[in-house]
């Protein structure tokens, strides 16, 4: 059994990316899935001066330890104006300063969603590009378009059959990858 850490890159209290990662985690079987909320780790906007004056916070160390203790990660990233959110970028900035290879040997399922037809594809592609820099391996990815049109919060399921089949295929492939 592997330990999987699941979280969204959003700081919204009504995050659809959190809903997507929670749904994905509910489809994992035979592994321990731990959910965290990045807003529980209070990190100021990264700056070299803050780093020099204040060092690394206990909360940052706790977050790094959660990541280091996991065998794999499930991350759903949000998008602001065609880019990864400043909130998530800030978390990455801090983590990479405390330990550059903070994702070393982590297998990652990377997802994104948005209300629009592109499903936060730009944020997904950006994040796919930077994860290897920090030692992680994106073994599966999925961009989920038009969240409100394709997901029923009441039923907690993907309502579009084609999307559901593709999503479940990604989940199964991720599980296979972390078992090898």
UniProtKB/TrEMBL annotation:
GO MF: FMN binding; oxidoreductase activity
GO CC annotation, single: cytosol
Superkingdom of source: Bacteria
Pfam families: FMN_red
InterPro entries in alphabetical order: Flavoprotein-like_sf, FMN_Rdtase-like_dom, NAD(P)H-dep_reductase
Positions of the NADPH-dependent FMN reductase-like domain: 3-141
PANTHER family with a match to the protein in the record: CHROMATE REDUCTASE, NAD(P)H-DEPENDENT FMN REDUCTASE LOT6
Name of the protein this chain belongs to: NADPH-dependent FMN reductase
Lineage, top ranks: Bacteria, Pseudomonadati, Bacteroidota, Flavobacteriia, Flavobacteriales
């Amino acid at each position: 059994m592997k330990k999987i850490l699941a979280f969204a890159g959003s700081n919204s209290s009504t995050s659809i990316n959190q809903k997507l990662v929670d749904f994905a985690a509910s489809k994992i079987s035979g592994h321990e899935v731990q959910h965290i909320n990045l807003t529980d780790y209070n990190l100021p906007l990264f700056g070299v001066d803050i780093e020099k004056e204040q060092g690394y916070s206990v909360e940052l160390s706790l977050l790094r330890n959660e990541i280091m203790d996991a065998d794999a990660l499930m991350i759903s990233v949000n998008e602001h104006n065609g880019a990864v959110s400043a909130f998530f970028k800030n978390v990455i900035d801090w983590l990479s300063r405390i330990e550059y290879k903070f994702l070393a040997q982590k297998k990652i399922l990377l997802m994104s969603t948005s209300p629009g037809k592109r499903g936060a594809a730009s944020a997904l592609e950006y994040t796919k590009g930077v994860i290897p820099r920090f030692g992680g391996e994106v073994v599966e990815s999925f961009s989920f378009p038009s969240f409100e049109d394709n997901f029923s919060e009441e039923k907690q399921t993907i309502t579009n059959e084609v999307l559901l089949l593709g999503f479940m295929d990604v989940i199964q492939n991720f599980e296979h990858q972390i078992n090898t």
